[in-house]
Each structure stands twice: as structure tokens, then as C-alpha cells.
Amino acid sequence: MEAHILVMIVMIITVFHETIHSSAQDDHLNPPPPSRYSSCGDIQNISFPFQLESKPVSYETLNPYRIPLSLYCENNMTIMFSNYYIEEYYQVKAINYNNYTIRIVDPKVQKGNCSTFSSYSGDWFYPPLETEIRYGHGGIFWSGNFNVSPLVETLVFLSCEKQVLNPRYMDTTPCINSTSALLVPNSSDDYLYAVYGTGFKFSDMAKSCKIVQSAYISSRKEKTMTTSYRQIHDELAYGFELSWISIYQKDMETVCYVDEKSNEVHCLCGKTTARWCRIWKAISPIISSVVYFIGDRYKNIVEILAPRTIIGLSFVIALIIYKWRRRHLSVYDGIEEFLRSHNNLMPIRYAYSDIKKMTQGFKTKLGEGGFGSVYKGKLRSGHFVAIKMLSKAKSSGQDFINEVATIGRVHHVNVVRLVGFCFEGSKRALVYEFMPNGSLNKHIFSGEETDNSLTSEEIFDISLGIARGIEYLHRGCDMQILHFDIKPHNILLDENFTPKVSDFGLARLCPLENSIVSLTAVRGTIGYIAPELFYKNIGGVSHKADVYSFGMLLMEMASRRKTLNAEADHSSQIYFPLWIYDQFNKEKISIELEDVTEEELKTTKKMIIVALWCIQMKPCDRPPMNRVIEMLEADVQCLEMPPKPYFYPQENYNADKTGETSQTACSSSPLDEDSTD
């Protein structure tokens, strides 16, 4: 028996060696010897899967599916045809044989001349509104030998009848003065904008706009903060990449991809290179035949190996489960350690069974947020509470620690009170005092599910209470608490409409003497996030970020409308703070409020002036919260108008040049009197 087994092992090794040898010899994906290289212009050492040829006489003779792929040398420039039914070609700028990409660009696009543009574009169709505008470039034809996604993104050109004030819409002037440059008839008076297609949905497009042109740009090129069309044109002139990884997929009859760290091709037969994938494909039938032969001939060997295999698999599964539990237990241990070290500050700790009793089995659901669902509960004392159950999938444990660490030490009439919490393994809950009037957004925005019945005086009192709550977070505790998510949804109202700041999942604790904090990622809600979290050059991140968020909230409370309104009748009203500032300068202070008294109008005007101060672009131009409270309590006649608000720093820079306001340094306004700010 031993002799037969030895013979079979020798046969397997022999076949395996021959397979490796033949695979290495036939592996046409490896670089060829230097004698097979060819060059044209700046593109040197052209090799498989490309082949340099003379320009074809007839385009009908071209075969886009043939391998090797054809490149042509014309006027010392390497070109590649993308559409074999019309004479459409691109210049080859680089070939990377390490990550299997070729970078091409339309030769009509000239770097440094932003009026030049690619002439290749296809007809557009309009899919469902929620579809992203990606890879919709219908005019470029690529054969099955190339992959486009995810190496490229689409640059979309929009022709708009009205001016659009949105930072995503990049004005193409003075590079392209009218859409006639893009061969759009009878539209020379329209506005032309360039928009990145990634993340931009058809529903985001302004009503007066239509797509007139598109082009590919590279998604791999490192992006800078784009502030002008000239920078976008530089991306057009750089070109975009195509990948010939699909050749591997045809050769292996499976799906393959490139590991960007190792530049190796990995296929679905295992995390290995394409060569080993092909080797395994060749020898696997032989191994199966040998195993079947041995099992049929020597059943006692199978009887010996089978139990050992089962035991080995059981051990591997147990090891995987152990690793998984250890990773999750480390999160639980971190939370437990925090709770033990801060035991003197903690509210009541409840068992999970207590939470179920309070909520009657989670019977009444009040709402759902980013980190879990909120249920109505009742304590044994008879008091109602709101219980937030944190989702395991969305929570890493840090949000739980943030809430307990911050709100657990706060006692203020304008900050929601944390009654208790629950932590049992993966079960985490936060127990708050119940707010019967819900969140502020239900009372200030008009809509079917809202109650827009608060008077201007009540709105003002609520805004003053919110300001006092935030000011207490910044200066009233032994540690400074930065909220980072001030918005209407996170302001709760009790039975007397007293506002309470809530939801501290994104909050940060820092010493009172530290004015600047470091963040690894942007945090907050779009529309309320301070600009310094995006633009690092305008100032550090500090408590002034909460001041900005409060300013946007205050603007919405005063006007009872969103600060960003894509459905506005006039394009100048899309960004409301900019529009309302112009109205104040024109002494048109009617804010679309019906039946308001002179006193209510003064209150509204005061709230808007304070809000405009709070949303200044630079953090050092915003007042601290204690000064905000003083301004809200002062007479409106004592308040001066702040500089004009801007949507992004480029506008601010342009205003500097015209002398409208100086932002090269912080304003010398008396608003920021606190030296610690």
C-alpha cells in the first residue's frame, strides 16, 4: 500500500511542477523580454497587452476586442481609439504595468488653456431622481477589455437659465463665456456650471438647469479643495485611467481585482496572484481524482483522515468565534472601565430587565435617530422617561461613553437630564427625562406633521434658553463640553416649552484653558457644521463651532424656514443668510411673517442680527456664547450689523479684494470681548 501511495505523491508533484513551468512560460500577462518592447514619443517600452501599430487605413477593419490591444503612433504621439465607428481617439499619457492601468486624455484639452474642452460627449437620459450622476458618458465606447468604474468619475456641465448660488456649481467663466462654446444652440445667455457627478443626484439639480455636456476625470488623482473652474480644467487635462484587469477575468473565467497595496491580481479562487489561481484551476481536478482513488481503494485511510478533518475544522471554527468575541469584549471592557473610574459622577445604573419593564416591552416608539431608537417609559415613581436604545450595528461604544461622560455631569435647566443608563454586554440604553412637546423642529417649520403655533415671543424665549444651555456647557463645568451637533432635532421642549439641549453622541470634553481641539473627522449635520471643520486655513476648531451651529439654528427660528432652500423662487434666496443680509441693507425687513406687531418685528430683527454675527466665516469673528446672550438681551438699536456672511472662503477672499470687509485678520469688532476666546 505504501508503494502505491508513494507513486501517487510523485505523480502529483510531477504534474504540479509541469503546471507551474507551463504556466510561467505561457503567462502572457508577465512583461515580455526587452526585445519585444516598442516606443512612441513619451511612452516608452510599450508591451503586452498593448501593441504599437501603424494607423489603420479603414476604421471598419479595427477589432476592439482583439488582444493584444492596438495603440498607434501619429506625429510622435501615442494614441488609442475609443470609438471604432467614428474617428474618436485619445492620447496615451502613461501606462502603469504595476497596477494595470492606462491614463488617456483628449488631445484637444490643453493644459493652461481653460477654454479648451473635450468634444466627445454622448446623449443624456434621465434615470430616477435618486440616481447619482456617475458614468453616464454615453459617447465614449470601451470594449470589454477595459474597466471604467471605479477609476473615473463624471464631470457634468449644466446650462442654467438662472444663476445658481451653490458651492457645488462651479462657474465656468471667464474660461467659457457661454454655452455656445459647448455647441448648445440658442443658449448664449444661460449660465454654465461644472459639477462633480459623484454624490450628485438628479434630484439635486436646480430646476432651471439641464445637462449639456459631460467628460471623464480621474477619481484616483489626489483632489485639492476646488474653488474655481481652472482647477477643474487641470483635472481634465490630467486625463483619466482605464484598467485592463478584465483580461485576467477572461483568462481565469472568474472575477479578479488589483490590490493597490501590493499591486497583485487577486481572483475569487483565493487571495493569491493570477498565476497561482490558474495553477490551482489546472491541478484541482487531478487532486480530486487522486483523493477519490485513494478513498475508493483504501477506505481505512479515509476512516482515519475523516475524524481528524472534523476535529481540525471544529478547532478553526472555535478559534474564529474566540477572536470575534475577544474583539467585542474589548469594547465592553473599555466601557466597564470607564463606568468604574467615573462611578462618583454616574446616574442610576439599570438592568436590562428594568428597561424592558419601563417600556412595557418597547411598546411605544417615540422616534429613531442616527444611533438607535427612542421609546417612552415609566419609572416606578410614576414619572415618564425617554429611553434611547443604542444600535449594536451603528454604535462602537464611543457614543455611549460620550453621552454618559458629558450629560452625566451636567445639571442645568436648559440641558436634558440623564436619569440613568443600562449596560449589559451588547445591550446599551440611556434613560432621559421625558419631553412631552418633542423636538423644536416640529414647532418652527411649516408642514403637515408640525405645529407652527409658537408666538415670536415664545420663539425668542426658547432661543435665549438654548443660548444659556450652550454657554453653560462651554463655561459652567470643570471641563469644557463641545456639543458639535446643535440643530432643531436636538433641542427638546418640556411641558412649559423650556428648551433642553440633548444628544451628546458627538460631544467632546476638553480643559477650559484649551481653546483648540483636534478632530480626526468632520462631525455634525450638514447645514449646521462650522466651516473650520472643512477649511483648516480659516482657524482652529473650538467652542466657536457650536456658536456657528447656534447661529444657523437661530436664523431658522427667526425666519421659520430652512437656511438652505433649493426650492426658492429666486436663486438669491437659496442661501437664506445671504438673502436676508441684503434685505436688511435695503431696509426690507419683512421676513414673510403674517400679522406681526412692531415689537415682534424688532425681536425677529434682533435674532437675525445676532445669528449673522454667529455665522461669520472665521471663528475669531464670532462672539462667544456669553456675549451672544448679552446681545439677545440687549435692545436691537444697540446692535451693529456684522460683515456680510459667505458660503465658502473663496467668496470671502473676493470680498477682501473689493474692500467690502477685511478678513485677513479677525474683525476688530467689540463683540469678541472675552480674551479667552
The oligomeric state is: single chain
Radius of gyration (Å): 33 Å
End-to-end CA span: 87 Å
Overall mean confidence score, pLDDT: 72
Q: What is the C-level CATH assignment of one domain?
A: Mainly Alpha
Which residue ranges are poorly predicted, with pLDDT under 50 across at least 5 consecutive positions?
A: 1-35, 122-145, 653-665, 667-677
Beta percentage is: 15-25%
- Please identify, by name, the CATH architecture of one domain: Orthogonal Bundle
Tell me the overall shape.
flat
The CATH topology of one domain comes to Transferase(Phosphotransferase), domain 1
Q: Strand count, sense and closure of the main sheet? A: 6 strands, mixed
Question: Fraction of residues in helices?
Answer: 25-40%
Please, what is the CATH homologous superfamily of one domain? Transferase(Phosphotransferase) domain 1
- The tally of helices reads 14
Task: Please give the number of β-strands.
Answer: 24
Class from helix and strand fractions? alpha+beta
Q: Strand order, main sheet: write it out.
A: 3-4-5-6-7-12
Please provide a written account of the structure:
The structure is a single chain. The chain has 677 residues and is α+β, with helices and mostly antiparallel strands. Among the domains are: 38-159 and 212-266, no CATH class; 342-433, Phosphorylase Kinase, domain 1 (2-Layer Sandwich); 438-565 and 574-638, Transferase(Phosphotransferase), domain 1, CATH 1.10.510. Helix content is 31%, strand content 18%. Strands 3-4-5-6-7-12 form a 6-stranded mixed beta sheet, covered by helices on one side. Strands 15-19-20-18-17-16 form a 6-stranded mixed beta sheet. α10 runs antiparallel to α12 (598-614).
